[in-house]
Specification:
Blueprint: H1 3-10, H2 13-18, H3 22-26, E1 29-35, E2 43-49, E3 53-62, E4 68-76, E5 83-84, H4 86-91, H5 99-107, H6 111-118, E6 125-127, E7 134-137, E8 145-149, H7 150-155, H8 161-164, H9 170-173, E9 183-191, E10 194-206, E11 213-219, E12 227-231, E13 237-238, E14 247-251, H10 254-263, E15 271-275, H11 282-294, E16 303-306, H12 312-329, E17 340-346, E18 349-355, H13 359-382, E19 390-394, E20 397-401, H14 405-412, H15 416-422, H16 424-427, E21 431-433, E22 437-438, E23 441-442, H17 446-469
Parallel strand pairs: 1-6, 7-12, 14-15, 14-16, 16-21
Antiparallel strand pairs: 1-2, 2-3, 3-4, 4-5, 8-9, 9-10, 10-11, 11-12, 13-15, 17-18, 18-20, 19-20, 22-23
Length: 470
């Protein structure tokens, strides 16, 4: 038995994160939440870390074939290239990044003699919702009361949530791309004054082989303020595929997909839309590419438009797809696994890291890092802000280092388009970046733009009406 196995069997990642122990505190982990709302065999945790912020961690004790490890391992769904056992978890948070330093770190806290006492004191909060407020539940269509296509409501000229609250036009919903991809059903909520019936909007996820509904993205009525994910979690809702696909647009919600189309229907007639339902982890990314491959589409035939939210999470989703392009162009060799773009930290400060064995791409990224550093530092000096962005290179890795997590989040939400434009291997690929904007002003998501545009049209309509009266 190796020393790594002995350590994990005594003190694994689950023990580290879910008990009160000095090692967790020394690593800067300030909060741990156990999410019981996830429909998965793995344990889902949300942790708060001083240097890395909030992260989603999955714990599992069996491999893909069902074979037991005998201890828990982890997979970080917020930061790529952060997975493995408890030793790797600690090493990734040390300056050296070395596993033998992680073992020395463990030994300083005499974990062998203390671990049994630590296990007596569990220390974590419990929640039933994930970060975006959605829950994963079994899909049982026959239990959804009065399930019907939304077209029935539209043809009856009755109101519905998408129209009244999200300003999605009925012509968009009934267009060839979206017809028969949206459903409604009734949901009863018991209250102190009696039952209240709400109408929920269901976006079915169709199996690419059988065309059967195997999952769903659900937007509940406004007053309940709760989103659901039903059935197979790794699947994505998608629009009808046009006969000719010029673009594939990936948004964070089905409502954003409808909004994106409504803002420019002429340019998106030949667009195939997908929704990540607010979470684009590797299994969902794999399912997206399975759908594309099943239709016989090749990258040179279409543009893959990443239309994620204009926030830090959206930037991470952009990076994951950009890394897929880089991995295809620069496959790993015997030299070692390439990390490409990752979010990490150096000496307690967050950074955007790049690692690739191709020198041409390395030089392009380094030049881009210099441009970003100069641009944002000039603005910071003009505004007399404290803390500068700087570049730190070590161990064949390029690092764009930020003075704080807040500064990193502020900057990174504006970097995706610049990254794709300025790195030749990306600008020559089929990847495109689109962020929600209205008349030159950036918005978080596409539905915000629709609502703003609708509001503007109402104001202009009132002005025209007053002008006619005069």
């Amino acid at each position: 038995m190796s020393v790594y196995t002995r350590i994990n069997e005594l003190f694994d990642i689950k023990t580290l994160l879910q008990t009160r122990n000095p090692i967790r505190e020394a690593l800067g982990i300030t909060k741990v939440e156990l999410d019981k709302g996830k429909g998965s065999n793995s344990i889902q945790l949300h942790i708060e870390e001083q240097t890395r912020g909030r992260q989603r961690i999955l714990l599992y004790d069996t491999d893909k074939e069902g074979k037991s490890y005998g201890y828990f391992r982890y997979d970080n769904r917020t930061y790529t290239n952060d997975s493995g056992d408890v030793i790797q978890f600690i090493a990734n948070r040390l300056k050296s990044k070395k596993t033998h330093d992680a073992i020395s770190f463990l030994n300083r806290y005499h974990y062998r003699s203390q671990v049994e006492e630590w296990k007596k004191h569990e220390d974590f909060a419990i929640t039933t919702k994930n970060r975006n407020g959605s829950k994963s539940m079994p899909l049982q269509l026959d239990e959804l009361h009065n399930l019907r296509d939304i077209s029935q409501t539209i043809l009856a000229e009755a109101e519905h949530y998408l129209e009244t609250h999200r300003k999605i036009e009925n012509d968009v919903i009934m267009s060839p791309l979206f017809v028969e991809t949206i459903m409604l059903y009734e949901h009863t909520v018991e209250t102190e004054t009696g039952p209240i019936v709400f109408t929920n909007t269901l976006f079915p996820k169709f199996d690419i082989q059988t065309n059967e509904i195997k999952g769903a993205e659900v937007k509940t009525a406004a007053r309940t303020n709760n989103n659901l994910c039903l059935g197979r979690d790794e699947m994505l809702w998608h629009s009808n595929k046009p006969e000719t696909v010029n673009k594939i647009v990936v948004c964070e919600s089905a409502i954003d997909a409808l909004s994106h189309f409504q803002l420019n229907p002429k340019d998106n007639q030949n667009t195939w839309y997908f929704s990540t339902n607010g979470n684009f982890y590797p299994s969902r990314q794999g399912w997206l590419y399975q759908c594309i491959s099943a239709e016989g589409l090749h990258p040179e035939e279409y543009s893959l438009v990443l239309a994620f939210d204009r926030d830090h999470q959206g930037f991470q989703y952009d990076l994951s797809m950009i890394n897929k392009v880089l991995e295809d162009r620069h496959p790993s060799t015997s030299v070692g696994v390439q990390e490409f773009f990752t979010l990490d930290n150096i000496d307690g400060k967050p950074c955007l890291r790049f690692h690739c064995t191709n020198q041409t791409t390395n030089q392009a990224v380094q030049q881009w890092f210099f441009n970003i550093q100069d641009h944002f530092n000039e603005n910071a000096l003009a505004k007399r802000e404290n803390g500068m962005i700087h570049i730190h290179n070590s161990n064949d890795r390029l690092n764009l280092v930020f003075p704080s997590v807040g500064k990193m989040k502020d900057v990174t939400m504006r970097l995706s388009s610049s990254l794709v434009r300025n790195i030749p291997i990306l600008s020559n690929s089929n990847i495109k970046i689109e962020k929600a904007n209205f008349k030159g002003k950036g918005f978080k998501d596409w539905n915000e733009v629709v609502q703003k545009n609708t509001q503007k049209q109402k104001v202009e309509g009132k002005k025209q009406a007053r002008s006619k009266k005069v």
